[in-house]
Amino acid sequence: MVVRERVTGVDLSVEMCGITLSTPLVPASGTLAKEALGEVEGVYGAILPKTTTPAARAGNPPPRVAETPAGMVNSIGLQNPGVERFMEDLDAFDLGVPLFVSVAGETVRDFAALCERVSEDGRVAAVELNLSCPNVEHGGLTFCAGPAAVEEVVTACRAAAPTKPLFAKLTHEGVVGNARAAESAGADALTVMNTIPALTIDAKRRSVLVRGGLSGPAVKPVALKAVHDVARTVRVPVLGGGGVTSGTDVAEFMLAGATLVQVGTASFVRDPVEILAEFSDYLREAGMGAAELTGALR
Amino acid sequence: MVVRERVTGVDLSVEMCGITLSTPLVPASGTLAKEALGEVEGVYGAILPKTTTPAARAGNPPPRVAETPAGMVNSIGLQNPGVERFMEDLDAFDLGVPLFVSVAGETVRDFAALCERVSEDGRVAAVELNLSCPNVEHGGLTFCAGPAAVEEVVTACRAAAPTKPLFAKLTHEGVVGNARAAESAGADALTVMNTIPALTIDAKRRSVLVRGGLSGPAVKPVALKAVHDVARTVRVPVLGGGGVTSGTDVAEFMLAGATLVQVGTASFVRDPVEILAEFSDYLREAGMGAAELTGALR
Amino acid sequence: MKFYTVEIEARRELGAYTLISYRWPGEKVEPGRFVMARAAGYPVTLDPFLARPFSFYDFEDGVASLLFEVRGRGTALLDRATRTVEVTAPLGRGFEIDASAGRAALLGGGIGVAPLKILGRELSARGIDHDVFLGFLDAGTAAVADDFAGASVATMDGSAGTHGTVLDAAPDLLEYPVVYACGPNAMLAAVKDAAGPDGLRQLSVEERMGCGNGSCNGCVVPVDGGYVRSCVEGPVFRAEVLAW
Amino acid sequence: MKFYTVEIEARRELGAYTLISYRWPGEKVEPGRFVMARAAGYPVTLDPFLARPFSFYDFEDGVASLLFEVRGRGTALLDRATRTVEVTAPLGRGFEIDASAGRAALLGGGIGVAPLKILGRELSARGIDHDVFLGFLDAGTAAVADDFAGASVATMDGSAGTHGTVLDAAPDLLEYPVVYACGPNAMLAAVKDAAGPDGLRQLSVEERMGCGNGSCNGCVVPVDGGYVRSCVEGPVFRAEVLAW
Ligand SMILES: Cc1cc2nc3c(=O)[nH]c(=O)nc-3n(C[C@H](O)[C@H](O)[C@H](O)COP(=O)(O)OP(=O)(O)OC[C@H]3O[C@@H](n4cnc5c(N)ncnc54)[C@H](O)[C@@H]3O)c2cc1C
Ligand SMILES: Cc1cc2nc3c(=O)[nH]c(=O)nc-3n(C[C@H](O)[C@H](O)[C@H](O)COP(=O)(O)OP(=O)(O)OC[C@H]3O[C@@H](n4cnc5c(N)ncnc54)[C@H](O)[C@@H]3O)c2cc1C
Ligand SMILES: Cc1cc2nc3c(=O)[nH]c(=O)nc-3n(C[C@H](O)[C@H](O)[C@H](O)COP(=O)(O)O)c2cc1C
Ligand SMILES: Cc1cc2nc3c(=O)[nH]c(=O)nc-3n(C[C@H](O)[C@H](O)[C@H](O)COP(=O)(O)O)c2cc1C
Ligand code: FES
Ligand code: FES
Question: What integer pLDDT is reported at residue B140 of this predicted model?
């Protein structure tokens, strides 16, 4: 485990919702395939696979990704094999660290059924509700529509999965109101934020290239604000993310109030091992442990 | 005029609200000082100075700008000498092209009074209402709060400036609803979009660096979507902008539905002369005139 | 994704294309596999943001080479790189090789010739007979064919070789038990059509990629019942798998 | 803002700092003016995004030079540049020079020494007597003082010259009718204090900049009744103007 040597001498461990994690880093849902897990051993404090849905989804036709300045727009359309096949394959994600599972339905009932299904499995440490995927025309989108919808879904999921920590993943639009709603409906933590709805155009062909969600370093300042605003509003912990690219970025999100930090798009262009190593260097210089950093803005 | 030679042989002219412009480019409000006008002669079809307010505003204490990946966050706080001093100095902005004036108040009455004051001046070709500046805690912010507020302000301004074209400048949050409201209240055109609320943190000092608005290439895909969504919703023309950096970007915004394109932050790091030259090259290759490009997605 | 900064061993122009080579200490590179490459990434720059996929052109004595066409900003910057570039380890699934299947036809369209060099080398090493057919827009791009001894060439403008597409330069593909092709997706579809359903028909596809290691689900191609990721299940597919 | 790609004429290290020079065909460069500079911008890259402000270190025979300290990513990339850099034309308002005013004290703190070289050259050319006082953290950064003949040096760690700040190395500033200073804002405030209200007291300030040409209102310093832009009304200000 190449990471180990580079991160000795600092305390990277954090605790959230009664779960102890060896590092505060978590892969953002949909950005780490099981085929790539070998590359990141020791980096993440928990694993979080791509969102799963009640039935298999083929996803959107290509092109699905477009490069943008310091970022990318994706329109995957939640391609996944459906919750049953996903659960059959769950051991593939076992890296010896807690496993979080992301779910999305098109109705409140779907969400609740998914929560029940995945939370009853002993291998699942927590459930993340993807309330914000901008690529699903029906369903997903409606759940970012406002606090009332968020409250309804989270309430149903809370009842369906009473024993497992429940995270509500929110977009940046209206994030504070939605965060309050999710908290009061019983979410144990909030994930802030998902991609930002965006569009790319191919000027040469005069056609739309990809309509989807913007992610990557470009969105970092927007995500930092969302995390900061939410962390000052709610009492539950925050999983922060959006554009995290370096160890310094990890520190920034924790300072803004995040307890865990999600690394997504940047893992396509950097080795997450480096990000953790840089974060360790930051802590060493600051003379702090990871857990002390949350909200420690002066 | 160095631009002239590089843009011959293509028809760059466009028409909006009865105003004919020599090029579809306009500086985004707050990004072109009168001291810098000499550098951009021939580039812009109209000039649009920084937002003016009823009284002088000192603006926010520094630091006011922070670099971000492919962008920047600013928190200027609408520093300006107040509308009276601004109008006295208006001739400084005379480049022989139409002059648009941006105004912002803290109340509906302020907005209306500003519209009356500036629109009565014969040198002013149109008025842009800055409904979206994220840096003004009271006033500005409330006007992005939703369609009802937008409708109220625009209605009052419409009455106060019945003879001059009125543009409503909107943020991306809830832009479609706000666009509908502005249109139905009588706005002659919509400017989409302003900066995105954002935060930067200095990890080393563990302190907030700048809390303000994100602009520059990073936001382009978000702005393109906002322009595209609005242009498909309203009948009035759109002034599109947000991250425009190259001639291709200008084309993308026009294809998405913009009639005029605002260049802001990129003018700090590039020569706008180049942007217009690249746009001319695009038109030459496409065999199109600028005016044909609006909404011409296949 | 882990990127390695490698020194450029050699750089030369093959007609309209650029060839760069670097020492790759890893395992032997299988024909048809690819790398994600860029001039530089963080901390030097985050723009352009994504790395670009390139097939291996060749691999000999521990030196790997890439052949590329300058299209946009990423390839322009790679073309300017003088000292180092950043590459991943070899990725994806390459061409299946079946020594018992018989004579092979290799078809390349434009920069799609890239993986045929290393494939031809492997076939020769295994004593497998093969013919190479290369199609280009014009004589400028066709110049790379000099690096493929004995290849038949076609150009769309007739300025070199047969006038027409790569299929116009090739005999009846049905006569080949094995057909390999790489080029624009439209050409691959035509090859699939012309080669018929029987025998080993392998196409190296070209899709926009985010990650290159299966993580983003961005690079999919349509198959029966859905989409599969071309970076891990491809980029080389059996023709019958592709729902084109 | 218009950027010019200029070839690096020379590059050398002055202790902990880097000096690069380039031919500047424009007018004579006034001491205290600055440029926005970067290793490369669009179309090569949009990240790092903003150019960085640097005072002119020197200007002689049409060759301009910049002296800089590597702090973050932008300066690290400038430090790596081997062939070209991108710079604007000279910007801002430089030092006022009044030949009749009498003897001048020049105070520099750390990399704030930069504009004092060209200022000293100008003062000498006009026959104005002046003394140079330079303060640094340590002997490593103080090495640049070798390029300032006759300068008095102080270091915070005492490893070279006087132990203490630049003010510890200087005599009573009240005795100088003219005082010029450049360095961290905290040092400038101390100099303002020590130099008293009379005479010509000029401070070159350091603020974060967006544009460099007055357009963004980002680089302001506090003055009586508000803020003014240091890129057009400065970076050199009369001390009494600054509301510090
Ligand atoms: C498996 C595979 C192997 C390839 N092998 C080679 C090779 O050996 N030599 C070679 O020259 N080219 C090869 N290509 C195509 C090469 O990846 C594109 O030409 C390159 O990505 C264009 O980048 P750019 O910066 O020049 O263009 P830009 O238009 O600036 O690129 C913008 C974005 O679009 C993507 N993109 C644009 N065009 C293509 C395209 N045709 N295919 C895939 N992505 C694209 C880029 O990767 C980037 O993310 C291969 C593609 C794939 C998928
Ligand atoms: C008028 C003026 C003249 C200057 N002259 C010199 C000089 O001659 N030599 C020299 O070495 N330095 C000089 N500086 C300081 C120099 O601009 C900064 O050291 C440099 O911008 C840091 O960039 P970076 O990429 O290394 O740091 P980063 O921290 O990566 O920069 C991030 C952003 O913050 C800004 N920033 C960070 N630190 C400073 C700072 N101290 N001052 C202003 N902006 C900052 C950068 O410009 C950039 O926008 C001058 C500054 C000003 C305002
Ligand atoms: C290719 C791709 C696929 C994604 N798929 C999902 C998903 O299935 N579920 C989800 O909740 N978020 C998904 N996301 C969003 C990320 O989890 C993350 O919230 C977002 O990208 C912002 O973080 P980043 O900038 O670090 O990537 C996806 C993002 C990308 C780029
Ligand atoms: C430094 C700065 C100051 C700005 N000031 C104003 C302003 O006074 N009024 C306004 O309507 N918009 C203001 N804006 C927003 C721009 O006009 C523009 O809408 C936004 O920056 C997005 O475009 P861009 O990415 O091209 O800069 C300002 C932007 C910047 C970067
Ligand atoms: S490129 Fe990301 S899954 Fe293939
Ligand atoms: S740096 Fe933009 S106004 Fe001074």
Answer: 42
Q: How many CB atoms lie within 10 A of CB D104?
A: 24
- Proximal ligand: closest to the CA of D141: 2
Tell me if chain A has a CB within 8 Å of the CB of C5: no
What Cα–Cα distance (Å) separates residue C233 from each residue in C28, C190, C193, C195, C229?
Answer: 19, 22, 22, 22, 6
Q: Are D93 and D136 in contact (CB under 8 A)?
A: no
Chain C residues with beta carbon closer than 8 angstroms to that of B70: 46-47
Low-confidence ranges of chain B (pLDDT < 50): 134-141
D47 touches chain C (CB under 8 A): yes
| A219-256: pLDDT as tens digits | 999 999 999 999 999 999 999 999 999 999 999 999 99
Nearest CA to ligand 3 atom 10: A29
- pLDDT score for C165: 96
Q: Is the pLDDT of residue D83 over 60?
A: yes
Query: Distance of CA B56 to CAs A62, A230, C212, Å?
Result: 53, 34, 54
Q: Is the pLDDT of residue A137 over 50?
A: no
User: Do residues C136 and C155 touch, judged by C-beta distance below 8 A?
Assistant: yes
For residue A8, what is the DSSP state? Answer: T
pTM of the model: 0.97
List, for residues B119-165, the tens digit of each pLDDT value: 999 999 999 999 975 444 444 445 657 899 999 999 999 999 999 99
The architecture in CATH of the region C104-206 reads: 3-Layer(aba) Sandwich (3.40)
Instruction: State which amino acid sits at residue A54.
Output: P
Rounded-to-integer distance, Cα B103 and Cα B112, Å: 10
Residue B75 Cα, ligand 2 centroid: separation in angstroms?
A: 19
Tokens of C196: 């018929």
Instruction: Quote the pLDDT of residue A144.
Output: 58
Buried b (16+ CB within 10 A) or exposed e, A182-220: bbebbbbbbbbbbbbbbbbbbbeebebbbbbbbbbbbbb
Q: Is C41 on the interface with D (CB under 8 A)?
A: no
Mean pLDDT of A10-20: 97
Mutate to test the interface with C, among A64, A73, A74 (most CBs of C within 10 A): A64
Q: What residues does each domain of chain B span?
A: 2-60+77-197+218-287
Closest CA relative to residue B165, chosen from B108, B219, B216, B237 = B237
**Chain D nearest C-alpha distance from A69 (Å):** 7
CA of A196 to the centre of ligand 3 (A): 10
Cα dist from C162 to B277, C135, C154, C158, D13, whole Å: 40, 9, 4, 6, 60
- Show binding-site residues of A for substrate: 50, 74-78, 130, 194-195
Contact B27, B48 (CB under 8 A): yes
Q: Which chains have 3 or more CB–CB distances shorter than 8 Å to chain A?
A: B, C, D
Q: How far is the CA of C78 from the centre of ligand 5 (A)?
A: 21
Neighbours of chain B (3+ CB pairs under 8 A): A, C, D
From chain B, the residues in CB contact with A222 under 8 A are 196-198, 214
Q: Which CATH number fits domain D3-88: 2.40.30.10, 3.10.580.10, 3.40.50.80, 3.20.20.70?
A: 2.40.30.10
Mutation target to probe the A interface, by most A beta carbons within 10 A, among C49, C87, C229 is C49
CA distance C13 to C196: 36
* Residues of A annotated as part of the active site: 133
* Whether CATH 3.20.20.80 fits A2-60+77-197+218-287: no
The pLDDT score that the predictor gives to residue B137 is 44
Task: Give bridge partners of residue A168 from the DSSP assignment.
Answer: A129, A190
Please answer yes or no on whether D221 and B76 come within 8 Å at the CB atom: no
pLDDT over 70 (residue A3): no
Any alpha helices (H) in chain A, and if so which ranges? Answer: 2-6, 83-88, 108-119, 147-160, 175-184, 220-231, 247-255, 266-269, 272-286, 290-293
